[in-house]
Amino acid sequence: MYIEVILPLPLEGLFTYSVSDALADKVDFGMRVLVPLGKSKTYTGLVVTKHNNQPEFDVKEIIAVLDSEPILLPIQYRLWQWMAYYYMSPLGEIFKAALPAGLKAEEGFRPKTETYIELTPAFRSEQAQHLALDMLKRAAKQQKVLVDFLYLSESGEEVTREELMNESKCSPTIIKQLTDRGILRTYEKEVGRLNHGGEPHPENIKKLNMAQQDAYNQILLQMMRKNVVLLHGVTSSGKTEIYIHLIQKTLDEGRQVLYLLPEIALTVQMMERLRAVFGNRLGIYHSKYSDAERVEIWQKQLSGNPYDVVLGARSAVFLPFHRLGLVIVDEEHETSFKQQDPMPRYHARSAAIVLASLYNKVNGTQGKEVKVLLGTATPSMESYYNAQQGKYGLVELKTRYQDIELPEIEVVDVKDLRRRKMMKGVFSPRLLGAVRDAIADGKQAILFQNRRGFAPMVECKVCGWVPHCQNCDVSLTLHRTLNQLTCHYCGYTYTVPTECPCCGSTELHGRGYGTEKVEEQVTDVFPEASIARMDLDTTRTRHAYERLIGDFARGRTNVLIGTQMISKGLDFDRVSVVGILDADSMLNYPDFRAYEQAFTMMSQVAGRAGRKGKRGLVLLQTKNKELPIIRQVVENDYAAFYRDLLEERRMFNYPPFCHLVYVFLRHRHEDVVNSAATFMGSLLRSWFPQRVLGPDKPAVARVKTLHIRKIVLKLENGIDQKKVRAFLLQAEKTVLAEKRYASVQVYYDVDPL
User: Fold this and answer.
1) Residue ranges of the chain whose pLDDT lies below 70
2) Distance CA 452, CA 486 (A)
3) Predicted pLDDT of residue 516
4) What DSSP element (H or E) covers 270?
5) Beta strands 706-716 and 658-667: pairing type?
6) pLDDT value for 568
7) With contact defined as beta carbons under 8 Å apart, do 2 and 54 qualify?
8) CA 281 to CA 453: how far, in whole Å?
9) CA atoms within 13 A on the CB side of 648
């Protein structure tokens, strides 16, 4: 017998191996096998086909079968195949991204065990226990531990060593002395790492108000006609309560729900809300969980007792579901749903929609199809366009919960204030006054600055020298708490110099503002306030997220400073003031999506204000107050913003009016990558006339010592993707066949963000 397997390597295609007669009955689709590759390496492969057709080439035999049951469902494999094809990524890269590391490692997953204590058979009778206590009269500590053990075991429950140590306040040595005497003995028992979350409490589901109930009914009506529905609801309109009602309805039908969120930070708050209703029916899955925890969730989803609701970030789309009925993609506009590096560069929203359609092709019947709900206050251009064109259903929720007014957004003209020398650092007098009033009133403030670190660059005031990364074409960001200059692309660090290496001057100053610098200045101005910072540097662990969000939600922190993390759907009761410190840094980014992402970010961060109680205040600082987009943010006029941007996209032929593919080439030598990119560009132009832009340098043209060139393909909607893919791969093959270009790396970004 022969099998075709996927290996977790960036290589195209499947690998063929033979299976011995002894293992032939033990191997099946979706099982892992240990296989040799090359002279000495072994890998964990995943079986996708078995057959009896002898290959025309020599094949090696598998070493071992690692599973007794499949760990992959056929429908998951179909999703992998679609992703590999659509995103032009090797299947091995999908395998690497989809499975937790513990399911790819040769040593496999090790279950968590805990040490338990029990009496040895000789001391299980009451008489023997009295004798044991008499024996220990001269060993008071040991006698106390035995008494405590007998007390803990009275209920018939098993007793862990840790539990006994906590009860007796003893060391492991005392327990070992009792085991050496033959009175107690220890044994290991497998225990789960997963938090079971308590019993479900559906009675905690809140009754919907009239606007929410109407939206809920419309969603159900739309889902009778469409498999994908967009819920466009203003910030704080109570979309989550609608989701909870839809989840409960799906569970009542005996089906499962996948709930996707763009950021791990959001799952912390949402977990608490969902767990209060669904208890141990809820599972959490994201990259900040340990690999062992993710393996256990994967295995639980394959078991006869899976989680009915899974809440997770984008990687949760890969989990196995036997009874999927609903997929919710909350904050569907978020760019965090798009994986960037490493491959596969997939979009979780698109993958979720395709996953639902695959289920529907396999086992969907009328009334039992898997439905997808996209929810947001600021829809992505593509999703809103699809809804307007009738491809998706559309439901709008235009009032905030309890009819609280949308926040008042006040524009602060920074250019005028700087001219009149009225700005203190990055803060306008109006913003400082509003934050001061909020703190005095027992309320909270959020300050939004979409740059981390202390300053984006350091500059010599005498000669203008700026330290750059030795590996990338970017200036180094100053992180003053670490006294380091850091590259945010490759991680290269450089100790802050005491003098300029060019002119010897000691006048080195940070230029610009990052969250670290904002935090320092807020601390100087409001020394009595409790201040927290939320960015990539302060949230590297799962518990850091939970602590920061928990402290702010409970009012232990007065002011929260953060990057785009704080704009993503977080719900805080006491926030009365939000400051957007520098709108222009978002608007001036060299990308056709800059205005869309700026509008989204500003609208979302503004929506954090005044969610409970009285109307909130948002102060938007900009040098360009006359821009139409500023007025549209102030008036929360998504419709006008959409119309303006759609017309611009139509005029210049950008999505949703075309389909973009970025082709990247990279190499250590600039002349080689220049020449290779020009060659590939000419090949593509011969097949796609008028559809090719470039090659050009991207915004950052060298990363990790590799020079990068970018070619843009603008392909009309409905174009034959099979032909496009074939032409791209043929062009790549032709370029790499040239000896000079053999070491050039070519990769693709389909539907880039």
Assistant:
1) 106, 108-112, 190-197, 265, 364-367, 542, 568-569, 611-613
2) 11
3) 92
4) helix 264-278
5) antiparallel
6) 67
7) yes
8) 40
9) 12
Which helix (H) or strand (E) segment holds residue 353: the answer is: helix 348-363
Give the closest residue to 609 by CA, choosing from 637, 657, 574: 574
Structure tokens at 264: 């791990």
108: left (phi over 0), alpha (psi -120 to 50) or beta: left
Distance separating alpha carbons of residues 590 and 580, to the nearest angstrom: 20
For 415-423, the CB contacts below 8 A with 24+ separation are 415/623, 415/624
Peptide bond into 695 cis (omega under 30): yes
Residue 542: its pLDDT value, please?
Answer: 65
Quote the CA–CA distance of 665 and 684 in Å, as a whole number. 14
Cβ–Cβ < 8 Å for 666, 697? no
Mean pLDDT of the chain: 91
Label residue 201 left, alpha or beta by phi (over 0 means left) and psi (-120 to 50 means alpha): beta
d(CA 50, CA 31): 11
**Which residues, at least 6 apart from 547, have a Cβ–Cβ distance to it below 8 Å?**
none
Q: At CA 605, angle to CA 602 and CA 609, rounded to 5?
A: 125
- Per DSSP, the residues of 423-472 read -BTTB-HHHHHHHHHHHHTT-EEEEE-S--SSBSEEEETTT----B-SSS
Tokens of 75: 């429908």
Amino acid identity of 582? D
Cβ–Cβ < 8 Å for 118, 184: yes
* d(C-alpha 620, C-alpha 633), whole Å: 10
**CA separation, residue 523 to residues 241, 453, 526, 737 (Å):** 37, 16, 5, 60
Residue type (1 letter), 619: L
First to last CA, the chain: 45
pLDDT (0 to 100) of residue 402: 72
Residues 118, 121, 122, 127, CA torsion sign: positive
State how far the Cα of 620 lies from the Cα of 634, in Å rounded to an integer: 9
CA distance 95 to 121: 50
- If one counts every other C-beta atom within 10 angstroms of the C-beta of residue 166, the result is 12
> Do 725 and 715 form a contact (C-beta atoms < 8 A)?
no
Number of Cβ within 10 Å of residue 113's Cβ equals 11
